[in-house]
């Protein structure tokens, strides 16, 4: 198994986390262990917990982090950070990193069913557990499929695609990635079919639904922030607007102080900011990184420091 994945915004993450040699850190999305190895290499007496819900990633990360005795790989979804820390007896963290991108390994390994460019079983499960994308496509109503495509993929032709899927499955199961890709394209107007990657939004939407990604992200941010020590930092890399919008809104709420109307002479709400933004705008990949790794083009890094 070759779990290849180029760590996006690597140096920016290392700098943004302000890693202390004696600190305790958590990488919630270990993947190919690129970011994890970078953190572990900067520790002396500190510790690193590297989480991933994908068993293939856990196997790879365990091998690649074997040289770092201060690193521990755990098969777990980052939405469960509080439970992980309770099991490990950890009272607080000095930094947390969440890289929300689908790994190159997951995209390039056809049998995982994430890609609309290769024929494979319609799977898309990051954890390899629970209902697959084929199960979702087979069981969801036309209305529910349209909602998923619209809300999670921002697909403007969601109703047409949902209708095409439901009609097709009445004749035979929609069981493979290319079957679904052809259905999506058949439901689109000619002009939309000529767009680059016309299936991207639909596949993104189903993947988010299958893995409950936005629910996991919300819980993950909340759990990670509460686990931070004062001065600890939370770094989140997003790859599409839905993720980034959620991160931006949650960070804004954590950094918001007084919410009294401006006409009040003094504050009566008593609210104070719980965090500070490290940078007001997201950090984007450099021109050099974009040239070296085209999959980094939509990446955005946001950083928060707990007060």
What does this entry look like structurally?
There is one protein chain. The chain has 307 residues and is of the alpha/beta class. It has helices spanning 10-17, 34-41, 55-64, 81-88, 104-108, 133-139, 142-153, 158-169, 177-187, 190-193, 200-211, 213-227, 241-255, 287-292; strands at residues 24-27, 47-52, 71-75, 93-99, 228-238, 275-277, 300-306. It has a seven-stranded mixed β-sheet, with helices on both faces. Helix 2 links the parallel strand 1 (24-27) and strand 2 (47-52). Helix 7 packs across helix 8 (158-169), helix 7 crosses helix 11 (200-211) and helix 12 (213-227) runs parallel beside helix 13. The protein is globular, with a radius of gyration of 21 Å.
């Amino acid at each position: 198994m070759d779990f290849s994945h180029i760590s996006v915004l690597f140096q920016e993450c290392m700098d943004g986390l302000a890693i202390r040699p004696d600190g305790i850190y958590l990488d919630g999305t270990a993947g190919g262990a690129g970011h994890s190895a970078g953190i572990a290499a900067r520790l002396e007496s500190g510790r690193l917990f590297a989480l991933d819900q994908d068993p293939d990633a856990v196997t790879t990360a365990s091998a690649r982090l074997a040289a770092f005795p201060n690193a521990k790989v755990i098969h777990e979804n980052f939405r469960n950070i509080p439970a992980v820390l309770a099991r490990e007896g950890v009272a607080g963290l000095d930094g947390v990193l969440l890289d929300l991108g689908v790994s190159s390994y997951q995209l390039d390994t056809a049998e995982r069913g994430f890609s609309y460019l290769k024929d494979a079983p319609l799977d898309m499960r990051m954890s390899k557990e629970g209902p697959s994308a084929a199960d979702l496509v087979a069981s969801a109503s036309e209305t529910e499929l349209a909602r998923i495509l619209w809300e999670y993929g921002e697909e403007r032709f969601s109703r047409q695609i949902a209708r095409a899927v439901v009609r097709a499955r009445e004749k035979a199961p929609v069981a493979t990635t290319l079957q679904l890709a052809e259905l999506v394209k058949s439901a689109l107007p000619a002009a939309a079919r000529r767009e680059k990657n016309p299936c991207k939004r639909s596949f993104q939407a189903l993947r988010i639904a299958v893995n409950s990604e936005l629910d996991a992200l919300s819980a993950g941010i909340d759990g990670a922030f509460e686990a931070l020590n004062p001065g600890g930092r939370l770094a989140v890399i997003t790859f599409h607007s839905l993720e980034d919008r959620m991160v931006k809104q949650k960070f804004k709420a954590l950094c918001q102080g007084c919410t009294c109307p401006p006409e009040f002479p003094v504050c009566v709400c008593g609210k104070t900011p719980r965090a500070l933004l490290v940078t007001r705008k997201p950090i984007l990949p450099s021109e050099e990184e974009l040239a070296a790794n085209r999959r980094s083009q939509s990446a955005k890094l946001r950083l928060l420091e707990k007060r």
